[in-house]
Q: What sequence folds into this?
């Protein structure tokens, strides 16, 4: 089964993600999704000279995205497992890879941003929203749970990271004030 | 076994029906996916060709044919002027920690900066009323050694106050730039001893001293100073004063007699200092940096390397907070041990 067929299955019949066998070729498709998504994201960043050029630079972005998605998939799986929903973490990780195909949209959107049609950051946020939406759809099929719970599980890692960042920032400011005053 | 028996007895009509096969994918989806993949490939090619063109344009940007830039081609882009701050009273410092601001750390910074190849000139940003004789001379000596070894120009810049020991250090520099209202001068030595004898008698405190020689407790705050001690200390003061005058005379290339006329401890404004030859020019820090750049062959407005290390600044801040929760500064304030100082106490 080629990658297009696997992607077609994920789009048309996402319920097969929860099946025993799972969609054929999901592994390859998921990893290619990460690659294509990273390439799109990297091209977007390069268009705004936000990252240095070269293979090494791309590799760093790729590894960072893989690591972040690995963290998100594992924490979402943990949440699902704790709340009684059954599914597979590895399949969730690969399904997220399929959703990352949407990041390829960033390439044409970068041209729009360069043409002053909306801000580049705004396009990025819109694209991220699309990815989150696709992930919610995939998660609710994979475990299976309600759309609200899927949305909650997707947002939890972001919220957790945000809370940690906020707490560290507040403490850092308090520490600096203590140092200076 | 029972299960097998039961299963054998099940009515064929009651057997569970096989799960319905999933609906086949719409044929159009695959086609759309292929079209999107093609468009993605095209947009990627377009994006990377644009990025490459932009990078190439950035690389082949025509250089400004300014003559000053052509003459600067031989120089490294990193060439710079170093600015070393010298703020507050100068003392030996209470530790050898790199973030401490004692005279030994400042002397080390001066020699380190002077040894760096890209540093072509050094500006000492002085805002100090002076300090103990030994620590002032340590910095003076570091400047003289760095000048002799590297032949790099040193420029002293005076801020609010640069008197006594602050001026001693500046005398080692090739040029002195001061603000018109800077307080400078105060060339001289001071040794002050407090006398708590009367107070101690009042509170009933008595100090017993057992000493190996009659001068061993010279400068004691517990008794009156003897004429012999006074004479001895005056000799020390005179010798230190002579060292100060000699340093100024050599540094400023002025006759000793002329220096002595100015060296009765009087203070000058920056403008008065310029009139009597203690200061070379009036200006601010940027003027001093410009002069350093010109003397170092970098021209006006050179790249500036600051001596301050963010890590050391942070450690200094943390250290000052953690050292006895701030009581260290209080104990230092009440440290009344007499010392020989090139210091202006008027501030």
A:
């Amino acid at each position: 089964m080629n990658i297009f067929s696997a992607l077609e299955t994920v789009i048309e019949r996402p319920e097969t993600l929860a099946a025993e066998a799972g969609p054929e070729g999901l592994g390859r498709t998921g990893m290619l999704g990460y690659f294509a998504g990273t390439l799109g994201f990297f091209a977007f960043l390069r268009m705004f000279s936000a990252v240095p050029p070269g293979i090494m630079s791309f590799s760093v972005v790729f590894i960072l995205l893989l690591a972040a998605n690995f963290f998100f998939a594992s924490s979402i799986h943990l949440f699902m497992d704790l709340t009684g929903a059954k599914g597979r973490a590895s399949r969730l990780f690969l399904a997220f890879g399929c959703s990352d195909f949407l990041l390829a949209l960033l390439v044409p959107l970068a041209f729009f941003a360069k043409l002053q049609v909306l801000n580049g950051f705004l396009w990025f946020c819109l694209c991220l929203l699309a990815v989150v939406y696709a992930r919610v759809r995939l998660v609710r099929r994979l475990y299976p749970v309600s759309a609200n719970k899927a949305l909650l599980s997707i947002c939890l890692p972001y919220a957790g990271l945000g809370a940690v960042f906020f707490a560290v920032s507040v403490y850092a400011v308090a520490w600096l004030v203590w140092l200076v005053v | 076994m029972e299960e097998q028996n039961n299963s054998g007895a099940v009515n064929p009509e009651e057997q569970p029906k096989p799960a319905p096969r999933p609906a086949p994918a719409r044929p159009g989806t695959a086609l759309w996916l292929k079209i999107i993949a093609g468009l993605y490939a095209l947009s990627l090619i377009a994006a990377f060709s644009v990025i490459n063109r932009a990078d190439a344009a950035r690389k082949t940007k025509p250089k400004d044919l300014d003559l000053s830039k052509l003459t600067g081609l031989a120089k490294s882009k990193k060439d710079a002027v170093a600015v070393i701050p010298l703020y507050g009273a100068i003392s030996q410092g209470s530790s050898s920690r790199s973030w401490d601001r004692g005279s030994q750390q400042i002397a080390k910074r001066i020699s380190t900066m002077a040894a760096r190849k890209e540093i072509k000139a050094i500006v000492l940003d002085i805002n100090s009323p002076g300090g103990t004789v030994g620590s002032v001379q340590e910095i003076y000596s570091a400047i003289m050694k760095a000048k002799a070894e590297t032949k790099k120009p040193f420029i002293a810049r005076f801020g609010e106050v640069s008197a006594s020991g602050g001026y001693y250090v500046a005398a080692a520099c090739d040029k002195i730039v001061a603000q018109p209202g800077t307080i400078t001068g105060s060339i001289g030595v001071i040794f002050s001893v407090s006398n708590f004898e009367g107070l101690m008698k009042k509170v009933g405190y008595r100090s017993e001293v057992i000493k190996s020689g009659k001068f061993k407790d010279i400068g004691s705050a517990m008794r009156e100073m003897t004429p012999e001690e006074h004479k001895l200390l005056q000799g020390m003061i005179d010798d230190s004063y002579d060292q100060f005058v000699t340093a100024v005379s050599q540094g400023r290339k002025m006759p000793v007699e002329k220096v002595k006329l100015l060296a009765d401890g009087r203070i000058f404004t920056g403008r008065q200092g310029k009139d009597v030859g203690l200061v070379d020019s009036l200006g601010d820090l940027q003027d001093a940096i410009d002069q350093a750049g010109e003397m170092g062959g970098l021209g006006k407005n050179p790249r500036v390397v600051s001596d301050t290390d963010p890590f050391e600044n942070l450690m200094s801040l943390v250290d000052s907070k953690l050292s006895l929760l701030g009581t260290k500064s209080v104990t230092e304030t009440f440290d009344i041990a007499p010392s020989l100082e090139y210091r202006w106490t008027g501030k």
Summary: Helices of chain A lie at 3-12, 26-47, 55-82, 89-99, 106-114, 120-142, 147-180.
